[in-house]
Specification:
Elements: H1 2-19, E1 30-35, E2 38-40, E3 43-46, E4 51-56, E5 66-67, E6 85-90, E7 95-101, E8 104-113
Bound molecules: copper (II) ion (CU).
Length: about 110
Amino acid sequence: MRALGATIATGLLVASVLAGTAGPAQARDKTVEINNNAFWPSTSRILIGDTVTWEFNDEGVEHNVTATGKGTAEGDFASETMSEGEFSHTFMRQGTYPYECTLHPQMSGTVIVR
Ligand SMILES: [Cu+2]
């Protein structure tokens, strides 16, 4: 958890810098649970500088988080294939980022950064 804490702290620092005159940084980081062969929720709406953390929690079933978007600066994030643990990605650019589990293509989700 120490590494995750450092990641979050870094994200908040970056968000704080990007927010400029918008006031103190607010934690808007989102968690997506991987369970029952699906992403919950399937759509995550965040702001620039926020981090999405996917938690692998599907009773030992292996999954991955793989971006399917092309032609975008952040359209290439991908986790390892895992049956437990978590994967985080911080989004520094506005955009819509679709992703899937390559083992189960019906498992899809989207991160929308505004
Ligand atoms: Cu899967």
